[in-house]
Amino acid sequence: MSRNAKAGLEDIARAAGVSKMTVSRVLRGSSGFSEETRARVMSEVERLGYLPNRIAAAFGSGGTSTLVGVCVPRFASSLFGSTLESINTSLMRLGYQSMIGSHDQLPEEEEIWLKGLASWRPAGIILAARRHTPETLSLLRDLTVPIVEMWDLNTQPIDVSVGFSHFDDGYTMGRFLMLRGRRRYGYVGAMANRVTTGRNRRDGFEAALREGGISLAASETLEDHPGFYAGYYGTELLISREPKLDGIYYHDDEMAIGGMAWLASRGIRVPDDIGIAGWGGMEAASIQPRRLTTTVVPTALIGKTAAELLVGRMRGDPVQDVTMIPTRLVPGETV
Amino acid sequence: MSRNAKAGLEDIARAAGVSKMTVSRVLRGSSGFSEETRARVMSEVERLGYLPNRIAAAFGSGGTSTLVGVCVPRFASSLFGSTLESINTSLMRLGYQSMIGSHDQLPEEEEIWLKGLASWRPAGIILAARRHTPETLSLLRDLTVPIVEMWDLNTQPIDVSVGFSHFDDGYTMGRFLMLRGRRRYGYVGAMANRVTTGRNRRDGFEAALREGGISLAASETLEDHPGFYAGYYGTELLISREPKLDGIYYHDDEMAIGGMAWLASRGIRVPDDIGIAGWGGMEAASIQPRRLTTTVVPTALIGKTAAELLVGRMRGDPVQDVTMIPTRLVPGETV
DNA sequence: GATTGCTACGTTACCGGTAACTCATGCAGT
DNA sequence: ACTGCATGAGTTACCGGTAACGTAGCAATC
Q1: Residue B198: its pLDDT value, please?
Q2: CB-strand contact A32/C, under 7 Å
């Protein structure tokens, strides 16, 4: 019970009457000791309250640590928060420790984070970004550790990729809306730091419309983080420029809900006057009077899969290069 | 540009014609070298693409690392997400690296996380929980590193505490509602893993009512994570048991918004028929037809302050034991 | 009986930095 | 001229593990 932070392998070894190396072997579970020795060592470990020293272990083994770097755009997003939590607990359960960073969609921030991370000699890296600086790519190459690119599926990954296609999500939603026979569509998006994360979804959406012979009637992309209020005033801006729209595709559900709030305040009915579609499958949609038409993203599954793929690669198991995690269009009552 | 991960201090030293120790001194900025030497060393550092090795540095200095452990209830919460992000970037800017964990309100999970963290010999710890297991407390004591308890203010901190009082927030809101002259109040809360985080707010709220000579007419605490939908059906449960209420105090804003959605679906008007108050100052409230009466919590400031206090303590600066970060009641239009 | 192979360890060297100490030099003050 | 001290280095030991290799003892094989 009384934990003695100063007890090291040497102390255990002396107490158990074996060598330091034998204690090391017992603690790491590799073979090379008798059951009797194991029991004696473990009882001393318990009695002395030995605390492993991973700094020394990582150093002694020449840089083979159990550290994993994880970099996402933001913590404070319901989707990334859930993915991050899933990665973190999965890695912890598998015996790895994560070092998390955020880049807010800025490749330069990712580069700064990566440089700091690299000095900890991580055993693997999980990234959630498609754009990287040349320095980042060069550093990733030099580190020669497994790398999982997640979220946005990269079909030509640096190493391993897991996620889904934003383009396909937009395309599928576009096709779905087209089936409703409406013709005049608008788009409301948001971009943080000049990077529209939803850009690929919008492109996919437009591609579907184009196939149907029409083009996007209006589009409004705010220079702000996506959120309820951005959807609210983005819709106001869009409608004031283009009052006669049949439907609006939103960056995500929260923006769609914000948009619906603005429409409701103007007496515009959904879906009678205008159809609404979001993306993400966010919880806020659950209390809307009408179920939101959206694309549900399995955030936790993506995180868990990313963690498992990385651990597989770090252990040297053969793993799939590209793993698609399907999203699901949920037809609601807003279209 | 071509980063050579294998170059170490020794290589730099040889190339610059000095000793390894001089290179170490130059890189860490401590004095003991001439400007000429510094320039020569730095140019070799640049040329060879030296990557610092913090594992070796932490090991060599006998465990004085720049690692900080941070443990919060959840990542995927708008409030904690924001605080976490703030801590992470603040620590990074100050030259520290964080290792983040989540405990989901379970002291046992916190203990497991702490044991894993301890083996990395962190230089400091930030915790967001009031309850700890005896083992956790004993381990925290043995680690002898600065500890910041944040979020819920602890006036008798283990080491340092920063945050606000949930009790006071509830009390202040209770007083505010009482001024409106209403008499019959209900409460809708949520608890994850049998721990009601909002318990202190509810207690404060009840204390205020008691001073006014009344008691809580009805209370409903769901065994679920707080969120929009929990507020929605929690309100349904509350009202079905106690239809005649003048006001409802909610665990947080998202639950209040969920509650308002349910009330709206029944044609119950806010604030005419019933007053509503939330807590947290969450973004979703920004699109409600009426501004929600709530308590705004400066989440990012708490994170930044926690990081700065910890770094102060780690550097040995004198820092305040207890730092109150005031929250602010924002009277909206729902009461 | 000699050789081989396996088990269960012990020995030794080393990972890449940092702390603590030593030492030569130059210059100001007495 | 001598002392004292700051400056700018070099030297040595060490942090606490792990990898690689060595070896004693014993059973199985040749």
Answers
A1: 86
A2: yes
Q: Thinking of the domain B9-52, which architecture would CATH place it in?
A: Orthogonal Bundle (1.10)
- Extents of the domains making up chain A: 9-52, 67-164+300-322, 166-296
User: Which residue out of A9, A66, A75, A94 would a mutagenesis test of the B interface target, given it has the greatest number of B Cβ atoms within 10 Å?
Assistant: A75
- The verdict on a CB contact (< 8 Å) between A229 and B286 is yes
Q: What is the pLDDT of residues B278-309, one digit of tens each?
A: 999 999 999 999 999 999 999 999 999 999 99
Confidence of residue A63 (pLDDT cuts 50, 70, 90): confident
For residue A88, what are the CA distances in angstroms to A99, B6, B113?
Answer: 9, 29, 11
Expressed in percent and rounded to 5, the helix, strand and coil fractions of chain B are 45, 15, 35
Give every residue of chain B whose pLDDT is below 70, as ranges.
Answer: 1-5, 196
How far is residue A164's CA from residue A151's CA, in Å, rounded to a whole number? 6
3-state secondary structure of A127: strand
| The CATH number, out of the four listed (1.25.40.10, 3.40.50.10700, 1.10.274.10, 3.40.50.2300), of the domain defined by the range B67-164+300-325 | 3.40.50.2300
Q: How far apart are CA B117 and CA B119, in angstroms?
A: 5
- B310: amino acid identity, one letter: L
Q: Is the pLDDT of residue A2 over 50?
A: no
Tell me: the pLDDT tens digits for B184-217?
Answer: 999 999 988 777 678 999 999 999 999 999 999 9
Domain A9-52 matches domain A166-296 at the CATH topology level: no
Tokens linked to B233:
């059906």
Rounded, the Å distance between the CA of A145 and C1' of D9 is: 38
Q: Can you give the distance from the CA of residue B15 to the C1' of nucleotide D3 in angstroms?
A: 39
Tell whether the torsion through CA atoms of B288, B289, B295 and B296 is positive or negative. Answer: positive
CATH 3.20.20.100 fits A67-164+300-322, yes or no: no
Query: What pLDDT shows up at residue B4?
Result: 56
* Chain A residues within 8 A of B51 when measuring between CB atoms: 118-119
User: Per DSSP, what are the bridge partners of residue A185?
Assistant: A247
Contact status, residue B192 vs residue B221, Cβ threshold 8 Å? no
Is the CATH number 3.40.50.2300 carried by domain A166-296?
yes
Cβ contact B27 with chain C strand, < 7 A:
yes
How many angstroms is C1' of C26 away from CA of B34?
Answer: 14
Tell me the chain A residues in contact with residue B229 when contact means C-beta distances shorter than 8 Å.
283, 286-287
pLDDT attached to residue B42: 94
Q: What pLDDT score does B64 carry?
A: 81
What chain B residue is nearest to A139 in terms of C-alpha separation?
A: B3
Strand D proximal to A237 Cβ, under 7 A: no
Q: Which residues of B touch A102 (CB under 8 A)?
A: 85, 88-89
